[in-house]
């Protein structure tokens, strides 16, 4: 990760705090954070009080007055220094990416309630943009017989750039058809041309305003009843899994995976993939929880509660993936989107 911009409106602007936390004084530039106002919080961490010289620190909270703005300083930090800033700011604060008066986008520490509302809105907005993209893909008939998977993927990428500006993607763009729909994510089968009466799915992970979307949808080109039934069952299994998640406050990744597998069998299909049915999603670049990969997935080995916060204190948000396959006939389908929002 390259150097990061951090907007400071409080004690991180103080030279003694910078020397204590970063080992140097930083050069910054004046800017402002629109749409926020200042509140205060009482600090109890003795190390933070010692560095800042005060137990009363300012805190940015969302303002109902669109004319409000907080004046401050934009600092450039290395990844290690940004991590040190995270350790300095107490749990009352959470870090979000926000647009400043100058148009620059920078990290800023705000109150935790504001931060979680901001993150939820951004994730839902990113998903809506991805949904709009796939709706336009269907409207334009981009998934068509005679087109190769690679060509379709390139056309969807170009369409995303036309609709939203140059779009980054946080994982590889996937278009798979026919027997390729059986393969798990990590496989990279050779390019294939779609046929009449084919089935295909698209899995894209675009990044909008530094937040990740991850959306998967399945398309049936002909009138094959088995393929049409599988495509129809995908969102049904997804919604049943979502309801199960909502009803189980202490659910683990392992328990939800087991339920998705059960729902797949009940519908007459096999759960595909490489042993997981979803993953964490959030700001880009995202990080694994406590560096333990299994805890980032809806998978048999994940016995930690899904409703938890990460090591930065942020609420964990999840993508649910449903990959149903008919191994006998050699095809599958894929449906994924946000599990716990919307």
Automatic annotation (TrEMBL):
CDD domains: APP_MetAP, GGCT_like. It comes from the Bacteria. Keywords: Transferase. Coiled coil: none annotated. The keyword RNA-binding does not apply. GO terms for molecular function: transferase activity. SUPFAM superfamilies: Creatinase/aminopeptidase, Gamma-glutamyl cyclotransferase-like. Residues 124-306 form the Peptidase M24 domain. Pfam families: GGACT (PF06094), Peptidase_M24 (PF00557). Residues 6-113 form the Gamma-glutamylcyclotransferase AIG2-like domain. This is Gamma-glutamyl AIG2-like cyclotransferase.
């Amino acid at each position: 990760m390259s150097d990061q911009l951090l907007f400071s409106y409080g004690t991180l602007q103080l030279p003694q705090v910078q020397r204590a936390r970063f080992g140097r004084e930083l050069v910054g530039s004046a800017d402002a954070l629109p749409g926020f106002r200042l509140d205060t919080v009482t600090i109890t961490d003795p190390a933070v009080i010692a560095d800042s010289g005060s137990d009363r620190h300012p805190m940015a909270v969302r303002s109902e007055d669109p004319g409000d703005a907080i004046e401050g300083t934009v600092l450039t930090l290395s990844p290690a220094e940004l991590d040190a800033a995270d350790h300095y700011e107490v749990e009352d604060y959470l870090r979000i990416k926000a647009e400043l008066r100058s148009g620059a986008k920078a990290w800023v520490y705000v109150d935790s309630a504001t931060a979680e509302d901001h993150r939820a809105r951004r994730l839902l907005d990113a998903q809506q943009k991805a949904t709009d993209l796939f709706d336009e893909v269907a409207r334009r008939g981009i998934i068509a017989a005679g087109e190769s998977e690679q060509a379709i993927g390139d056309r969807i990428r170009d369409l995303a750039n036309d609709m939203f500006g140059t779009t980054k993607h946080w994982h590889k763009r996937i278009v798979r058809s026919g027997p390729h729909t059986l393969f798990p994510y990590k496989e990279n089968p050779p390019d294939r041309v779609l046929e009449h009466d084919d089935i295909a799915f698209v899995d894209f992970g675009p990044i909008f305003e530094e937040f990740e979307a991850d959306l998967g949808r399945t398309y049936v080109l002909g009138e094959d009843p088995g393929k049409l039934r599988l495509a129809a069952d995908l969102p049904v299994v997804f919604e049943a899994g979502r309801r199960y998640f909502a009803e189980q406050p202490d659910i683990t990744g392992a328990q939800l995976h087991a339920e998705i597998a059960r729902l797949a069998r009940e519908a007459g299909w096999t759960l595909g993939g490489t042993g997981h049915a979803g993953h964490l999603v959030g700001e880009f670049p995202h990080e694994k929880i406590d560096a333990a990969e299994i805890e980032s997935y809806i998978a048999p080995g994940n016995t930690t509660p899904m409703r938890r916060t990460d090591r930065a204190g942020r609420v964990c948000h999840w993508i649910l993936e449903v990959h149903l396959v008919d191994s006998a006939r050699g095809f599958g389908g894929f449906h994924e989107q946000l599990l716990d929002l919307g």
